[in-house]
């Protein structure tokens, strides 16, 4: 019996040693935290005039990597393929302004949200008064747009299904479709639209700023990696209470100095 128990313990230890260490342990051993990101979402992740990826979420990830004692490596990835890229080990984690949805949660795990946003509208200026909410757009005579693979697209197809929809690979192209009069409205997260209405709107857009969805943004990890999920969630609690989160949030949402880097 003693030999049998010893054999079981040895097998358990062997299996434990072969078990996957998890994202955080892998990043620490490697010395880099690799994060998949589509850098087109102001002010969360975007490319400045020097070709550097900057933004609110980028600064959060820099602080996360620092807490791990590793370097941050950002892996530019098209948004509509970002979950498959995570699942095939192209990077360790998704940090790309991703909304925690139940559909996505069937494929990957999510950390606790680091911010909550909602979908809003940028409409053609001549439609001001005619379009007061997303419900008014739910008509075949209207043309709407958003970025492919985002919750903006999902919401457009679910809540504004009667309107004609045409999606784009990036936010800028979709906004310009409205500016140029080819579409009537752009559906997207409030933090992006509040910047885009002035930066890209050319005086031709109106921002309907009342969010009509609830969208928690979170970091995406592989299924089953509960140790890493525990670490990330504990880190989020830490930065929310030690001033780190407030400092980063103020920089990107309460000041506009960063806009000079985008000109």
TrEMBL record:
Transmembrane segments: none annotated. Residues 1-21 form the signal peptide. The keyword Signal applies. One of its GO terms (molecular function) is ligand-gated monoatomic ion channel activity. Residues 32-256 form the Solute-binding protein family 3/N-terminal domain. It is found in: Cell envelope. This is L-cystine-binding protein FliY.
